[in-house]
Amino acid sequence: MELRITNLSKTYPNGTRALRGVTLTIPNGMFGLLGPNGAGKSSLMRTIATLQEPDTGSIMLGDIDVLTQKDEVRKVLGYLPQEFGLYPGISAEVLLDYFAGLKGIRDAAERKLAVESLLQQTNLWAARKKAVGGYSGGMRQRFGIAVALLGAPQLIIVDEPTAGLDPTERNRFLDLLSEIGENVVVILSTHIVEDVTELCPNMAIIAGGEVVATGSPNEVIGEIRGKVYRTKTEKAALAQLKSEYEVISSKLVAGQPIVRVFSEVPINGQFQPAEATLEDVYFHRLARREQAVH
Ligand SMILES: Nc1ncnc2c1ncn2[C@@H]1O[C@H](COP(=O)(O)OP(=O)(O)OP(=O)(O)O)[C@@H](O)[C@H]1O
């Protein structure tokens, strides 16, 4: 199954242009949608999940027209929104059984089997009788993905699932996502670059409602490979560097700024060539876009 998004635009009634001509082809497997806060990720996810209408454009999931055949989409969709409410006093086992019923799994034995297998898969089996209100952030997210996986969806959308998780829980969650399979489309929206580098064979960077780069992480990095340099500097020299070079990022390491810059032409002196990373592309693209807008 392939998801084809063509020329999707959306302006909210208050005038915010959340999506501007988004065109993307998303194949089976994990697809990373990387963008800063306010980039339009959630607007795009909600539109694909049939929860809101775009102003223009089309979305095809295989042969299904997502914008007109909403019921068909919902049958094959698993969606983990950025925020979701739960009934805090109810156990995961009972709640998941309830959601399975809503998803149309009517046969009780079949439902029991599905619920048990998802509780095992999401590592919540031992906590299945606990009220979900007492779950940690990571457990909540794993419960959310269990709900999203009910009914063996073909299209799985997870919106910023790792925000707020500690590293152990984050890894556990990402492992779970990558196990879900290569035969379904999984769209992972995130502002965490490593989530994409580590997991996604295909990706896009979105900023200001526009797709600013797309391809495999390797292809996306390709555009700046050999053009990234790094140097250690002093805090006092930072402003000067920023005025002379196209600074991608500066990070304090043990109190001292490490600066990465982009340059089309070789630079030396205090700089050393650095291996380009997805984070470099991300910051570079965002900075270029800022410049273009202002
Ligand atoms: N219902 C709405 N009405 C008006 N503006 C909205 C609405 N939803 C989102 N926006 C605005 O649209 C833009 C894109 O928001 P969106 O939530 O899609 O971005 P995002 O990339 O998911 O950001 P975040 O990571 O902060 O969730 C933002 O400027 C946001 O304030």
From TrEMBL:
This protein's record includes keyword Ubl conjugation: no
TM region(s), chain numbering: none
Keywords noted in UniProt: ATP-binding, Nucleotide-binding, Transport
One Pfam assignment: ABC_tran
Highest taxon of source: Bacteria
The protein's name: ABC transporter ATP-binding protein
Family, per entry: Belongs to the ABC transporter superfamily.
Keyword set includes Transport: yes
Classification via SMART domains: AAA (SM00382)
Ranges of residues in domain ABC transporter: 3-233
GO molecular function, one term: ATP hydrolysis activity
Lineage: Bacteria, Pseudomonadati, Bacteroidota, Cytophagia, Cytophagales
